[in-house]
Structures are given as structure tokens and as C-alpha cells.
TrEMBL record:
<protein>
    <recommendedName>
        <fullName>JmjC domain-containing protein</fullName>
    </recommendedName>
</protein>
<dbReference type="GO" id="GO:0000785">
    <property type="term" value="C:chromatin"/>
</dbReference>
<dbReference type="GO" id="GO:0003712">
    <property type="term" value="F:transcription coregulator activity"/>
</dbReference>
<dbReference type="InterPro" id="IPR045109">
    <property type="entry name" value="LSDs-like"/>
</dbReference>
<keyword id="KW-0479">Metal-binding</keyword>
<feature type="domain" description="JmjC">
    <location>
        <begin position="15"/>
        <end position="96"/>
    </location>
</feature>
<dbReference type="InterPro" id="IPR003347">
    <property type="entry name" value="JmjC_dom"/>
</dbReference>
<dbReference type="GO" id="GO:0032454">
    <property type="term" value="F:histone H3K9 demethylase activity"/>
</dbReference>
<dbReference type="Pfam" id="PF02373">
    <property type="entry name" value="JmjC"/>
</dbReference>
<dbReference type="GO" id="GO:0006357">
    <property type="term" value="P:regulation of transcription by RNA polymerase II"/>
</dbReference>
<dbReference type="GO" id="GO:0046872">
    <property type="term" value="F:metal ion binding"/>
</dbReference>
<dbReference type="GO" id="GO:0031490">
    <property type="term" value="F:chromatin DNA binding"/>
</dbReference>
<dbReference type="GO" id="GO:0000118">
    <property type="term" value="C:histone deacetylase complex"/>
</dbReference>
<keyword id="KW-0539">Nucleus</keyword>
Length: 97
């Protein structure tokens, strides 16, 4: 099983006149601390006060849009894996061993 490059998937989807149902951006677990650091940094830039026992990754109030994904790559070297899901299809992401 392998993930298709987004451009290839989009082309296949467009050829069949199907729209993706969801676009997922998946990151390696080893990058969690870097993602957390970026989210903390951005929250502080926006004037938020960080609670010591609160984890911005898990509060589901952040979305890594194109700007934040670019910043994550430029500042931390972290790149995700985009996965386009078609309507009615399931996505299985194997656990990292």
C-alpha cells in the first residue's frame, strides 16, 4: 500500500469528475514536538496565554493551513503527507513501528 502524490490523485479524480471528500495532512509522530512548538509560537504571537497543562495539538482548535504548513517546513523542516479521500472511501493509516 502506498500514498499517491496529491497531484496524481487530483488528476485521477478530475478525470472521473469526482471531488475529494476530505483532504488529510498526516505527520510523523516523531514530529509532534516540532508541531507543538510551532502552534505554541503562533498562539503567543496572536496574544494567547498558554496553560502549562494544555496541549494545542489535542484541543482541535487549530488547522494547519497552507501558510502554517509552509512555516512548519521552513522553520522546522517538517513536511506532512497529503492524502485526498474520495466520498465513500475509507482511509487506513498504518501505525508506525
Amino acid at each position: 500500500m502506498k500514498a499517491l502524490p496529491l497531484g496524481e490523485y487530483t488528476q485521477r479524480t478530475d478525470e472521473k469528475h469526482e471531488l475529494p471528500g476530505a483532504l488529510w495532512h498526516i505527520y510523523a509522530a516523531r514530529d509532534a514536538d516540532k508541531i507543538r512548538d510551532l502552534l505554541d509560537k503562533v498562539a503567543i504571537e496572536k496574544g494567547a496565554r498558554l496553560e502549562p497543562d494544555h496541549d494545542l495539538i489535542h484541543d482541535q482548535s487549530w488547522y494547519l493551513d497552507g501558510t502554517l504548513r509552509d512555516r512548519l517546513y521552513k522553520e522546522y523542516g517538517v513536511e506532512g503527507y497529503p492524502i485526498a479521500q474520495r466520498l465513500g472511501n475509507a482511509i487506513f493509516i498504518p501505525a508506525y513501528i
